[in-house]
């Protein structure tokens, strides 16, 4: 094992940075971190730059119990919750999200998200704006992978695309968004996944690493001269990412929450770091970590939150676990971005893969409803303090302004400075549009 010299630093969980960021041998075969970046794909799994934080609400939250309450509907539809006023006249949301109600002028709830291909659980639609049922060779790439390809790293020490998504019992609930035909070099770096220990060297000086880097480069040139298949085309990207991370503490510092102001950490809260069933954790520290990663240089950070598939006990599950915690984490993130002057550059979106049934079932739950769902956006210099879309009297169908997932993705690309009408080549060399001709949302720009 190799280790970089210096005094150990304690992380917030009590382990040393040296313990948390150990790397295996460096030799002709490359760095362990570079291998990690490849393995993530094989397993299927500065303040001023433009960035996106996407929060995937695993399992699909109940839209009519969050942003589209129907207090005049029959009891079997309206449920147990009451709407409350927000700081924007005329906009009401659920009583169990009071912190978001206080900052509605900084938010944009969308009540009419459409485009879910079916009622199956999958994060794919949120990350790509497309159906997973019809894909080109290699698959559609996620937002983070596209941005990684087109924009590259904002800082060489920080991957452009980071996914805060621990493994989940249902794999799509743990997905950070896949690279598709962009290739494994543009997959998400996952500090919570296998190999999270491989962020810094352990016991080797930077000068000695440079010597080994030059030696490795010599072997790579030899291998490239001998290779006629193109299979080594991704090696440089992997190795460059790995060496950039290993020769700087910038990424490790961003992940070290002990460096954060205690008052800020308290505002975000902790939540629960354990996976919720076969879903993701309700880890509020991931919201803070996302902000720190963007500050450090990440362009896209995805995080997965909870398991909202409330086929039974919808109201107790929402009221006692997911609702108030999401309210705390999301509102803290938005307020923090504004306090740090990052709100014009960092776009935030939270959503799930579809909505929930208007009628409450016999077990007190709501079932799958792909006809309409919800989202909430913030930041990015977007026009906030408005609600977009209306549904019928039972929140079952849009009656005005249906918003496709792809329109939200197009708007996020636009805020990143990427033309959503751009094309990228798939594995066959055929050009593919980023979001299949969905327009930028005029209400937001």
From TrEMBL:
A Pfam family this chain is assigned to: DUF1501
Stored InterPro entries: Alkaline_phosphatase_core_sf, DUF1501
Transmembrane portions of the chain: none
PANTHER family linked to this entry: BLL7424 PROTEIN, DUF1501 DOMAIN-CONTAINING PROTEIN
Protein name from the UniProt record: DUF1501 domain-containing protein
Organism: Pirellula staleyi (strain ATCC 27377 / DSM 6068 / ICPB 4128)
């Amino acid at each position: 094992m190799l280790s970089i010299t210096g005094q150990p630093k304690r992380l917030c969980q009590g382990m040393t940075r040296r313990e948390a960021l150990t790397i295996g041998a460096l030799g002709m075969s490359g760095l362990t971190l570079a291998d990690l970046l490849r393995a993530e794909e094989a397993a299927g799994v500065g303040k001023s730059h433009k960035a996106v934080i996407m929060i995937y609400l695993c399992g699909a939250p109940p839209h009519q119990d969050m942003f589209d309450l129907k207090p005049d509907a029959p009891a079997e539809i309206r449920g147990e919750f009451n709407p409350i006023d927000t700081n924007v006249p005329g906009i009401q949301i659920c009583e169990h999200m009071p912190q978001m109600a206080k900052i509605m002028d900084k938010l944009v709830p969308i009540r009419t998200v459409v485009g879910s291909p079916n009622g199956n659980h999958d994060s794919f639609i949120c990350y790509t704006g497309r159906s997973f049922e019809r894909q080109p060779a290699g698959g559609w790439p996620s937002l983070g992978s596209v941005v990684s390809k087109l924009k590259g790293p904002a800082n060489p020490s920080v991957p452009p695309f980071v996914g805060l998504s621990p493994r989940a019992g249902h794999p799509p609930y743990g997905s950070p968004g896949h690279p598709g035909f962009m290739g494994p070099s543009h997959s998400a770096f996952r500090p919570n996944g296998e190999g999270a220990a491989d962020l810094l060297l352990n016991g080797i000086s930077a000068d000695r690493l440079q010597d080994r880097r030059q030696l490795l480069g010599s072997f790579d040139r030899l291998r490239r001269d001998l290779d006629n298949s193109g299979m080594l085309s991704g090696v440089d990207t992997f190795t460059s990412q790995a060496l950039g991370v290993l020769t700087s503490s910038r990424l490790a510092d961003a992940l070290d929450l002990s460096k954060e102001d205690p008052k800020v950490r308290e505002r975000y809260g902790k939540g629960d770091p354990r996976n919720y069933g076969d879903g993701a954790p309700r880890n509020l520290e991931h919201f803070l970590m996302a902000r720190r990663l963007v500050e450090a240089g990440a362009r896209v950070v995805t995080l997965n939150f909870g398991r909202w598939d409330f086929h039974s006990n919808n109201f107790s599950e929402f009221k006692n676990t997911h609702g108030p915690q999401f309210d705390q984490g999301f509102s803290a993130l938005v307020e923090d971005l504004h306090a740090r002057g990052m709100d014009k550059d960092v776009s935030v979106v939270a959503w799930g893969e579809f909505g929930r049934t208007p009628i409450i079932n016999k077990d007190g739950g709501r079932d799958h409803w792909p006809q309409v769902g919800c989202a909430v956006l913030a930041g990015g210099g977007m026009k906030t303090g408005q609600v977009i879309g209306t549904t019928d009297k039972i929140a079952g169908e849009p009656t005005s302004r249906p918003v496709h997932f792809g329109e939200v993705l197009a708007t996020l690309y636009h805020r990143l400075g990427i033309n959503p009408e751009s094309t990228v080549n798939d594995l066959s060399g055929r050009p593919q549009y980023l979001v299949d001709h969905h327009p930028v949302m005029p209400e937001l720009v």
